[in-house]
Amino acid sequence: MDPNFQFQSQLDTLLFDCSAMTGQMSPWSSFGCQSVFPEAQLTFTDLDSQSPQLEVGAEVDSSLVDEPHELGKRRQQQQRRLTSHHPYKVQRYAANIRERKRMLSINSAFEELRCHVPTFPYEKRLSKIDTLRLAIAYIALLREILMSGCDPKSYVDECMKNGYKNQTNAIWNTSGKMRVKHMQATLEGKLA
DNA sequence: TAGGCCATCTGGTCCT
DNA sequence: AGGACCAGATGGCCTA
Question: Which of A22, A44, A88, A192 would disulfide-bridge A18, Cβ 3.0–4.6 Å?
Fold first, then answer.
């Protein structure tokens, strides 16, 4: 069997599987967290069609030309890219797909994490770095509350009045005290 | 328009 | 050897 054809078949399978998995890339997806941002749920096929790389004018298998549906088009595109390619390019293309898949899974995890840190409904989407910093600060605050043994609400009240003792609280970035108020509301709602 | 954020590609390194 | 992971480079989009 032609190695290129075999490789293409494997890629087809991979891309198709990935399309089916859209929105379920993360091992945390069982949390049922819905992303508000559709771009975070791009399929690999979408990404594939956006890829500017490896556009080489090559022959297209005539047996694929008549395929009417999207899968046929995708196959044609892949066929164009993969046939008559240097083996290195084929390997590189496969590596790019794996890398995109890996990044998607990371982004999916970020989406899950965003769902677990307190933000305002009207607040703009947290960046990745803000998500990480806020998560760290949130965990630190929860730990402080646990260690203090105080009532969570009164602890947050105390923080509002006197400021924080712990320097990690300096990381409450973008919204400052407003975010603390939101935390307070969150704690009241969740711990009441 | 500059800066921030992001997706993607790429080559290097490490691991299995 | 092949895949996973990582970091640098690049270009697009958006916002102040």
Answer: A44
The answer to whether the beta carbons of residues A78 and A100 sit under 8 Å apart is no
pLDDT in tens, A94-121: 888 888 888 888 888 888 888 888 877 6
Tally of domains within chain A: 1
Q: What is the extent of the structural domain holding A164?
A: 3-189
Q: A168 pLDDT band (50/70/90 cuts)?
A: very low
Q: A118-144: per-residue pLDDT in tens?
A: 877 677 888 888 888 888 888 988 998
3-state secondary structure of A192: coil
Structure tokens at A138: 């949130």
Q: Give A73-77 contacts, CB < 8 A, sequence gap 24+.
A: A74/A12, A74/A15, A74/A45, A74/A48, A74/A49, A75/A12, A77/A48, A77/A49
Distance CA A85 to C1' C14 in A? 37
